[in-house]
Sequence to fold (279 residues):
Amino acid sequence: MDQTQQKALNALESYVLLSKSANSPRAAADLITQATSAPNTYVFAELLQTPNIQSLTTASAEYASYVTLLEMFAWGTWADYTSTPGLPQLSDTQSLKLRQLSLLTLSTSHSTLTYSHLLSALSLPSIRALEDLVISSIYAGLLSAKLDTLSKRVDVSSVSPLRDLPPNSVPQMIAVLDDWNDRCVQVLGEIEGQVLEARRKARERRQHEEEHQKVIERLMDDDGLKERGGSKRGAYDAEGGEPMDVDESLRRGGLRGAKRGGGGGAGTGGFRHSGFGRR
Fold:
């Protein structure tokens, strides 16, 4: 639970206990005035539901208006108060508190946080009064905000959960939450689709890379076989793998050598022929 909210509940507790003894309309009306004027009291639903406070709804119009006033502090705004006739006059303390609570409600939309809109919605006389109200709300722990004096806007970053729920607001909240849930489911479905598509592309890319690698390895194996085959054939021929061709080569080599001997062979033959003739 938020610390400011816990503080507000603790501050209201004593008035809830006092409501048990506020048996007359006047006593109950005075108790409402005290509770809405006290420091740190920012939630009022529990007090509003007590029997003696609810009994004012059947009392005279003078006292019944105090119940309506307490509802303004519980979930209403300054604009609601000013547009509702017959409500009790507020003290300065009550006026400040109702404006602070109204600022929390207005903070739910950025479009309502311009200086011009806030001055009108809170019936403030000047920008200085508006800035003082925002600063007092920050120091009270009601919200976290910054004053953008250049853009004339109040930038709210967080708000304490101090506003009570008005009657019949739960179905509307459920509808808003259902809509939010549907949008979340849609976004999650789109994200899952993108994840599946990314995985599919990754598988295709990996498969393509594997096929490409296999082609490269096959080409490298083919080139290696060709190189090894050429080397073996060269070595086989050089070692006499074809005997007939080698003998033929040797014979031809011998004949060429004899021819190159030329004169020696012819001379010998001539000498023998000459000797034979002498005989």
